Amino acid sequence: MFPMVTGFMNYGQQTIRAARYIGQSFMTTLSHVNRLPVTIQYPYEKLITSERFRGRIHFEFDKCIACEVCVRVCPIDLPVVDWELETNIRKKRLLNYSIDFGICIFCGNCVEYCPTNCLSMTEEYELSTYNRHELNYNQIALGRLPISVIDDYTIRTILNSPQSLIKMDKPPLIKD
């Protein structure tokens, strides 16, 4: 008879514990009811990237002195710098500069240590392609500046904070 009473007590304790867990999860669900949705409609709406975002690298051919500091500080020796020495003026002349973004880890060391500031990070993050060889950018492709998300009139920009969504008077997602 005694084991039967302890069995009922254990069953009652387990029932109370389960009800408490269900109540806690229900309270968590209710706390999310008043929050705004964080989903964006990607091709038509884009987030504004932060100030220190490390996107595609922009290269200015005229500023580069072919010192190869970017290659030395790169953890994977990624930038390919082709140059020739002009003996009459004793300076290097840059012939070709390329970066393969399929391999790049976007660490930003090349930008940080460049002595002439010919490299900079852009806010461009849409680099997906169907062919990995299209991610190998030469100096011409690296020299193109991307269209700023703020300046693109076809896209509705969204800041990262929920308060900005309230200020923008975002229409509700529920349709009648």
UniProtKB/TrEMBL annotation:
Signal peptide: none annotated. Residues 55-84, 95-124 form the 4Fe-4S ferredoxin-type domain. [4Fe-4S] cluster 1 binds at residues 64, 67, 70, 114. It catalyses: a plastoquinone + NADPH + (n+1) H(+)(in) = a plastoquinol + NADP(+) + n H(+)(out); a plastoquinone + NADH + (n+1) H(+)(in) = a plastoquinol + NAD(+) + n H(+)(out). One of its GO terms (biological process) is photosynthesis, light reaction. It comes from the Eukaryota. Its EC number is 7.1.1.-. Belongs to the complex I 23 kDa subunit family. NDH shuttles electrons from NAD(P)H:plastoquinone, via FMN and iron-sulfur (Fe-S) centers, to quinones in the photosynthetic chain and possibly in a chloroplast respiratory chain. The immediate electron acceptor for the enzyme in this species is believed to be plastoquinone. Couples the redox reaction to proton translocation, and thus conserves the redox energy in a proton gradient. This is NAD(P)H-quinone oxidoreductase subunit I, chloroplastic. It comes from Salix dunnii. The gene is ndhI.
